[in-house]
Amino acid sequence: MSTSPSEPAQAHVQLTGVTKRYGGVTALDNVDFACELGSVHAVLGENGAGKSTLIKIMSGVVQPDEGEIRLDGTPTSFSHPAAANAQGIVCIFQELSLLPDLSVADNISIAEPPRRFGLIDRKAQRRRAEDLLARIGCEDVNPMARVRDLPLSRRQMVEIAKALAKDPSVLILDEATSALTSADVDTVFGILRRLREDGISILTISHRMHEIEAIADKCSVFRNGRHIETFAQGARSEGEIVQMMIGREITAHFPPKPPPPEATKPMLQLEKYSWEGKLKSIDLTVGAGEIVGLGGLDGQGQKELLLGLFGVLKGTSGTITVQGKEVTIASPQDAKAAGVDLALIPEDRKTEGLMLPMSIADNLTIASLNRLSRGLFVDQDALTAAVEDGIQRMQIKVGSSSDPVSTLSGGNQQKVVIAKWLMTDPKIILLNDPTRGIDVGTKQEIYRLLRSLAEAGASVIYYSTDYEELIGCCDRVAVMYDGEIVRELKGDEINERNIIASALKMDEAAE
Amino acid sequence: MTSLPQDTARARFKLGEDDKPIVMSAAFILVILAVGTVYTLYTQGTATLLSPEYLLQQLQVGAFLGIVAAGMMLVILLGHIDLSIPWTIAAGAMMATTVGGPMAIPVGLGVGLLVGLVNGLGVAYLRIPSMIFTLGVNAVMRGLMVAHTGGFAPQTAATDLMQYLAVGKILGIPVALMVWAAVSIIVMLLLQRTAVGKSIYAIGNKEAAAYLAGVPTRWVIVAAFCLCGMLAGLSGTLLAGYSTKAYQGMGDAYLLPAIAAVVIGGTHILGGRGRYLGTLIGVILIVLLNSVLSIMQMPESGRQVIYGSVIIVMLLVYGRGQKVTS
């Protein structure tokens, strides 16, 4: 009995010869793809490989230019997302689709609120939200809370509850786990396994290899809009998969670490740094040429620490010493000023890192306009040179630097954010989860870049939700718990066991 | 393959997203002139509208609106709006004529600057939405001016210099037009060539991202409101010169046309994008439309309906174009 992956008899949703073009760009090129009932199917590929377009076509957000979609063998087409929803295809998108000023319960039932006498039945709506939240292990989320007030990882869980409310037969997750903590990922995977047993088809996009190993039955690799190969999970090694995705050989996942430095000159020293109960008397020293990771569960103050250092939070206390001089940082302007030389790669590149409709050149230079000005005016030659230099240095793939930055793929957008800050010649670089939702190739470029910046004498503070990154990249990892640094790991101590143990404050048990 | 050079040539001349409204407004100006000329040829047998005297006179009248619109554009690019324009104009004019003498014009500008500063501080530091805050400031200015004048047109007259700037001519070219040109060059340089200008666009697009890039966002907002207020004060001073004195409600006719000119010129009403050339053309369009409608002896009611419809239709057309790309 030979079962080829695209055998129509089993296929629940089947795409044949699907092509989608955006202007001159072919996002999907004659793709055949099928996903089966009762299986978890992972789609892998770099950003720009066509994964998101595939999902948008399946969920009715865009229509294919050519090709056919069959649902249970019947040709069908979705003119808009609600039509796909009605057929049981529900998608959890990478960009959060929640309305920040409505309550959790309102958001979960936004498409089809329970009605009574034609009006929304608020009690039923609340009960429904409570049930769904309990199902995904989020009893701690108050259904009446405003979504705006929830941390990102909770919002993502609400997003999942909202999708489950639609009773899907095909559930599509587009990077839905990238903002979640490890514990939440486990919960979500538990739900997915149960849904799979109920015969639901699940399609997932993720850049985290270990998550795919944990959940997927089948994997499909896409590259440049083409479907490269579909295989049973486990049939290909991680190295083979990565090579399929990027089409070139990858030697090492992370650049080699130098031997632990002998007491370097301290670049940044924090003493008793505190903020409104979210940061509690933090002492941290970062040496020149050192990459220090911030570990721990999501929401333990890591983000606040970075934002505080960058002058965004009001009312911090304690002392910050940069290169031996005590400094006051009351705004990002102070943070990037000469003598402090901080840079922050923010968490959300779309709202905090970039002005999306503006040109690549404008985005690259916005942080260094004062350096590029001569007298009243911006020096046009210096500006052009700086833009070219930034594009070269980060190897950003651009058509023209006057194109809107929104036309770039996620990985290249993140490179623009980083290049923008490199132009200011920072001495201390703060990164808030910079590799979230970007492709493997770009991730590796970022790792190498951080190492080369450190070798050139800069200090890096790196917060990541991905333990692999902390282990692979950092010279030292400061694990945070409830606003405090509970443990600093060095050298060989940096391993997953120690990070998780410290993150859960289990030091004694783990020793 | 052979079509490659042609393609690149076309790409070079391809209209950008921001250029389309400008081209469309320019085309509409030609339509207005053509319709008006056909009318005058038919009724009077002359093409009055195409004579240099008529066009220069329209530009002179347009200068007052143009100067206001230049300031308004800065504020709209930020994603804000300045509704205090009417009484900033009137206050600038009234204080300039009250003080008189050589200090008249500096006082007119200074009053505008001060109103702009209050607006800017309220919006940037108190974080009150500009639509409400500037509306409130407009009412306050109105009250202050009524208290100052007793509710009547002030008896004081505009100085000679004010009158010269408003109605004088050098080599047949109205001085007011030159003032407008100077303001335009300054605003254009500001927007295209300075860090402040680029910061204005950045804030209009995504204030959080601009702030996190170390842009002094509050300072830029205050500066833009100050400039807007000062230009309204300048316009008021010139208007007083034009009609030789200040009077109640003299700025009332400038608020909506100024916003309309900016938006017709392609500046996004929510901020972030737009070119100054568009605002210039928007002002000319509005001035010519008004003038041609009055030449055609359209009653006031009909003029208002056509004037409003044109604004709505032009925006509808732009809106459709923008939807495709975003």
TrEMBL record, chain A:
Molecular function GO labels: ATP binding
Repeat is among the record's keywords: yes
Keywords of the record: ATP-binding, Nucleotide-binding, Repeat, Sugar transport, Transport
The ABC transporter domain, residue ranges: 13-249, 262-507
Database matches in SUPFAM superfamilies: P-loop containing nucleoside triphosphate hydrolases (SSF52540)
CDD domains cross-referenced by the UniProt entry: ABC_Carb_Monos_I (cd03216), ABC_Carb_Monos_II (cd03215)
InterPro entries found in the cross-reference section: AAA+_ATPase (IPR003593), ABC_carbohydrate_import_ATPase (IPR050107), ABC_transporter-like_ATP-bd (IPR003439), ABC_transporter-like_CS (IPR017871), P-loop_NTPase (IPR027417)
Protein name: Sugar ABC transporter ATP-binding protein
Taxonomic source organism: Roseobacter sinensis
Automatic annotation (TrEMBL), chain B:
Source organism, top-level taxon: Bacteria
Matching CDD domains: TM_PBP1_transp_AraH_like (cd06579)
Localization per Swiss-Prot or TrEMBL: Cell membrane
Organism: Roseobacter sinensis
InterPro entries, sorted: ABC_transp_permease
Protein known as: ABC transporter permease
Transmembrane segments: 21-42, 62-81, 93-118, 124-145, 166-191, 219-241, 253-270, 276-293, 305-321
Record keywords: Cell membrane, Membrane, Transmembrane, Transmembrane helix
Keyword Transmembrane: yes
Keyword Lipid metabolism listed: no
Coiled coil (UniProt feature): none
Pfam families tied to this protein: BPD_transp_2
Its membrane topology: Multi-pass membrane protein
